[in-house]
Amino acid sequence: MGELHVNMNITIDGVIQANGGPSEEDAGFAYAGWERPYGDEESGAQITADVQASDALLLGRTTYDIFRRYWPGKTDGIGRAFDRVPKYVASRGTPELSWEDSTQVTDAAVEVRDLRERHEQIHTWGSADLLQTLFREGLVDRVNLWVCPVVIGQGKKLFPEGTTASRFELSEPPRAYPRGVMLVRYRRLDGTPETSF
């Protein structure tokens, strides 16, 4: 069975919204593009390598709409990798599937299990709703967090109130990059968090 990896740029206070810059979906968000000051050549090479290791993408509809307006036809390592792999769009609505090799997933809780049977490594950059479904159903194998040294105090969070209680372990030592971003990779463990006094 293949694995599902969640990839997220995240602030210290857990915000994931509008990390890459302003978009139609995040109009009026005061801190759009908050990740940009922390990118560098070294972290960019790692992101590209991670993207190239995947053999499928799972995207929420909003993320898909943002990606399909930017990535198709790009000739860098990420653009070529994204164009090469099948793209699955989790949506109960009617997304515009204009990016080549895109397929709608209407019931992520059921269909992602099948996708894990067909693909070795699926990467997701999903909406908060999609991610909550994936965590609740125990479908996430690894979480790759690009933690940026910034607190913005508002916006959609990776783990909002009501998220399913889960536990993780480091899958490799955290790695810091020259401009202050840190890559932390966690593997999901079975069961709920342990407590002690």
What characteristics describe this protein?
Dihydrofolate Reductase, subunit A; 197 residues; single chain; alpha/beta
Describe it for me?
The protein is of the alpha/beta class. It has helices spanning 41-53, 61-70, 77-84, 108-118, 128-136; strands at 3-11, 56-60, 87-90, 102-105, 121-125, 142-148, 167-170, 175-176, 182-189. The chain has one domain (3-17, 32-182): Dihydrofolate Reductase, subunit A (3-Layer(aba) Sandwich). The chain is 26% helix and 24% strand. β8 and β9 form a beta hairpin. The longest helix is centred in the first third of the chain and has 13 residues, at 41-53. The mean pLDDT is 94.
SSE layout:
Blueprint: E1 3-11, H1 41-53, E2 56-60, H2 61-70, H3 77-84, E3 87-90, E4 102-105, H4 108-118, E5 121-125, H5 128-136, E6 142-148, E7 167-170, E8 175-176, E9 182-189
Parallel strand pairs: 1-5, 1-6, 2-3, 2-5, 3-4
Antiparallel strand pairs: 6-9, 7-9, 8-9
Helix pairs in contact: 1-3
